[in-house]
Design goal:
This protein is α/β, with parallel strands linked by helices. The protein contains 1 helix and 9 strands. It starts with a helix and ends with a strand. The mean pLDDT is 85.
Length: 152
């Protein structure tokens, strides 16, 4: 009878060691898979193009534009890179956003979770409204508009 007790303790210790090793192994597997996924996603994600000279980066989402005021110089060519932060499942506008200024005949539309670039040269000074008229209430939504100030 005494011999059976040490065997139970030995079996119990062995089982707990195996369980501990299984947990450690599972943890290592999770870390390796997570790191591999991160590296693969980083490797295949398109790089953000470097900003061109005189590029203004502005993002748009349901809560509005990232910039409410933009200042530029008259006669100077300007690049506006609009990025939509909304995905294609956004019910109003399908994730697209617009940046437009009527007085200069400029309009650019960014695809869902993407960017688009427009280049124009403002030819007169003043304050002008830029807006998105695709979704989120369009021009009536105060967060989907801002002011473009063209200075001498």
């Amino acid at each position: 009878m005494m011999k059976s007790r040490p065997r139970k303790k030995s079996q119990s210790r062995r089982a707990s060691r195996q369980w501990f090793r299984a947990i450690i192994f599972a943890g290592i597997v999770v870390v390796v898979l997570g790191l591999t996924s991160y590296l693969l996603i980083s490797a295949f994600s398109p790089p953000t193009p470097p900003p061109a000279e005189n590029t203004i980066d502005i993002s748009a989402a349901m809560n509005g534009f990232s910039l409410s005021e933009i200042r530029v110089k008259v006669g100077q060519s300007i690049n506006v890179r609009l990025t939509s932060l909304d995905n294609q499942y956004h019910g109003d506008g399908g994730g697209k956003h617009q940046w437009a200024v009527d007085e200069f005949g400029v309009s650019v539309i960014a695809p869902p979770e993407g960017s688009n670039l427009v280049t124009f040269t403002p030819d007169k000074t003043g304050s002008y409204t830029f807006y998105c008229d695709i979704c989120c209430g369009g021009r009536a939504n105060p967060t989907m508009q801002g002011t473009l100030i063209v200075e001498a």
